[in-house]
Amino acid sequence: MNAATTPSAPGKARTYLSGVQSSGLPHLGNYFGAIRQHIELPLTDPAEHFYFIADYHALTTSRDPEELRERVRETAVTYLALGLDVERATLFRQSDVPEVHEITWLLSCTGGMGLLERAVSFKEKIERGLKPNIGLFLYPALMAADILAYDTTFVPVGADQVQHIEIAQDLAASFNAIYGDVFRRPEALLSREHSKVPGLDGQKMSKSYGNSLWIFETGKLLSKAVGRIATDSRPPEEPKDPAGILLLDFLKLFLDPEDHGQWCARTLAGGPGAPGYGHMKQRLIQAIEERFAPARARREELLKDPAEVDRVLARGALKARARAVAVRDRAFRACGLR
Ligand code: ADP
Ligand code: TRP
Fold first, then answer.
1. Pocket test for ligand 1, best of 79, 82, 94, 160 (most atoms within 8 A of CB)
2. What pTM was computed for the model?
3. Class in CATH terms, 219-300
4. Distance between Cα 125 and ligand 2 center (Å)
5. What is the pLDDT of residue 11?
């Protein structure tokens, strides 16, 4: 974990905030790049913590209402099953805080168009054939409002979101330059080791790229998914540079550094003791099954008790909304709307 700089507004408490889109099932990239930090940070730092399910953002691509509802629930259940302590952290649904749209508008009226035109993730989505809607273009402005609405200081995310946080800093600065010190400057917080987890094809793992591995995948479907991890036709005994082997990157997520180092050393040495790709896949399947077994069992329990999940989200919504209303009011007063 490393914070780039100290946030502004000295003297105020630290606030951590992050969101995960409910556009698909949470995958290993989401876990190692973001969710794991969201769960561990409240245990190590008694600051304020807000984590939310970005269902408004999911609507930029989602078209099936039932599926969206189910994925919102699945994302909430994932946080709870993985152990988010909801006594220390606030878990909520983005759409329970409509004030973010008011803040989006305020930021849109003072921010320059060029900021959004330069957004890399927007360009990438279009390059991958997504038909751009207005929401997709405004996506970083809404994300900036999400962040600024809670006086956030740190945003724990994967590397792909850093530019969005810079946009939030710039939008806050443009507004503040005109109306005074209204919005607090946030900083990105990246996982030191896993800020860009590869997908099954070696590109960045993403729900929208069809290359992701669901955190709770198990049994035959897990074997099938791991079977898709890109390899080549070199035989096991041929010495190979570990740096070019995707399966070793995946193993690194799960094994302790010493164990992983041995897999790499044996791959580099080649010969009769070197592991083949099949062997690496078996080890990876075993590691995934083991790592998430307790959370998988908790997930099953939580799915049987939807009322409990609803209660957590309702409590979270109340707390998050109160905070966003206060920031919205401050911003309204500053620009003359009240
Ligand atoms: P996706 O890109 O699959 O739609 P989200 O956009 O909802 O996932 O991302 C939720 C969080 O997970 C963000 O903080 C994002 O940076 C992080 N994240 C997503 N994919 C990866 C990845 N491959 N490696 C590391 N972090 C990731
Ligand atoms: N755009 C983020 C993603 O795709 C999700 C998100 C929405 C978010 N609002 C946010 C992340 C605010 C951090 C802070 O991962």
1. 160
2. 0.95
3. mainly alpha
4. 15
5. 45
